[in-house]
Amino acid sequence: MKIAVAGAGYVGLVTGTCFAELGNDVTCVDIDEEKIAKLNNNIMPIYEPGLEELVFKNRKNKRLKFTTDLKSAIKDSEIIFICVGTPPKENGEADLSYVENAARAIAEAMDSYKVVVEKSTVPVKTGDKVAESIRNYNRHKCDFDVVSNPEFLREGSAVHDFMSPDRIVIGTESEKARQIMKELYSPLKAPIIFTDIKSAEIIKHASNSFLAAKISFINAIANICELAGADVERVAEGMGLDKRIGRSFLNAGIGYGGFCFPKDAEAFIRISEKLGYDFKLLKAAQEINKDQRKSFVKKINKALLDVKGRTIGVLGLSFKPNTDDIRFAPSVDIIMELQKEGAKIKAYDPKAMDKARQILKNIEYCNSPYDAAKNADALLIITEWDEFKQLDLKRIKSAVKRPLIIDGRNIYNPDDIKKHGFSYISIGRKDVD
Ligand code: UGA
């Protein structure tokens, strides 16, 4: 099938590339000329495992193209995915101006029937607005259908998530569009939920918000465990074996970050408010999430008595492993707060240092975890990269000034780390000296 993807950001790039891999002819469009030029030279704007190889392969066999020419891409395609950004406005609502612009551009360029698919995360009823914009600017009076087909890709495993989804959600009121989408996704073996557009839009926000609330729930339990002297890892295990609960997304830590959960939860709170519902549960999840970062800084202060003038080694800057993304990452808030209080920061991340350099200043960026540990009064674990789980702890111990690890992701067993001669503070578990 012939597909155009408007927006070659994280979602558009992965979606377009994977559809090409499934045998479709895909044109990814972006207004950012530099990004398109780089992609046409096989230079990836993001780090995402497996993506580069697929882009390279599908460009070579001419199933995947990158261009800034939206008009031609629309004319040549039957299905158009809107994958543009929906960044948060100051009040937390999603900014839909890019979606609106894309809808207009599609309407002005189309000269035959098109299926216009919302892939970006959008507030409920955006489908109606997209349809209205297209109707208003539909020069050639062409037939079209709008579909909501939310993405559930996780950064760091997006290609895998696309190819092996738990479910595919297709919201549309049109039988024709439904059949086209069904055929498009037929190579993937996954249940397809067909529904109306509004329900599909809500499925996306409800899913992200539920997962965010699940994380905040376990973080609240972690705080209770600390006060009671219990172990949150065992509690999560005991809860998670109940099939109705499940173990995933019960990892206590410094909370959720990234460009999805924090902003989507905030947007869903605003959407609910506008509809007349006070989403107290989600508000609390967001509050707990913010508090986790603050209480981590408090733990550091307590352990060092005062962070002023101390050297703190930071392992991990990305908001989660296997990505270079630092948007809304806990590392940013934590480091900025420690710097404000006078600490000297040395940091290492396997992939995110280039992006971090643009935001986090006055940091000594290091070439290895061992460099970051050198002369540190405390070593922080902020992101649970596999590399940090395999550290040579003897080497770390001889590098640091004081053998103190403060782990925001619970990657070590407290008793093992004690055997290596470290003091160890983690989340929702006993501290070891
Ligand atoms: C999330 C969803 O998982 C995807 O399904 C969705 O498509 C995507 O948002 C989106 O809306 O685009 P992502 O933000 O890439 O994906 O990453 P997650 O793996 O969900 O992790 C989000 C945050 O939660 C990370 O900061 C992670 O460290 C944190 N987390 C996750 C925990 O603190 N504890 C856990 O148990 C799990």
Description:
The chain has helices at residues 10-21, 33-39, 51-60, 70-75, 97-109, 126-137, 158-163, 175-184, 197-228, 232-240, 261-275, 280-304, 330-340, 353-357, 369-373, 386-389, 393-399, 414-419, and strands spanning 2-6, 25-29, 64-67, 79-82, 114-118, 144-148, 168-171, 192-195, 311-315, 344-348, 363-365, 378-381, 404-407, 423-425. The protein has 433 residues and is an alpha/beta fold. It folds into 2 domains: 2-195, Rossmann fold, CATH 3.40.50; 260-425, 3-Layer(aba) Sandwich (Rossmann fold), CATH 3.40.50.720. The strands form 3 sheets. The protein has a 6-stranded parallel beta sheet with strand order 3-2-1-4-5-6, sandwiched between helices. It is globular, with a radius of gyration of 23 Å. Uridine-5'-diphosphate-glucuronic acid is lined by residues 121, 151-155, 208, 211, 215, 249-251, 253, 255-258, 260-261, 264, 319-320.
Brief overview, please?
The protein has 433 residues and is an alpha/beta fold. It has helices spanning 10-21, 33-39, 51-60, 70-75, 97-109, 126-137, 158-163, 175-184, 197-228, 232-240, 261-275, 280-304, 330-340, 353-357, 369-373, 386-389, 393-399, 414-419; strands at residues 2-6, 25-29, 64-67, 79-82, 114-118, 144-148, 168-171, 192-195, 311-315, 344-348, 363-365, 378-381, 404-407, 423-425.
Question: Key features?
Answer:
single chain, 433 residues, alpha/beta, Rossmann fold, six-stranded parallel β-sheet, 14 strands, binds uridine-5'-diphosphate-glucuronic acid
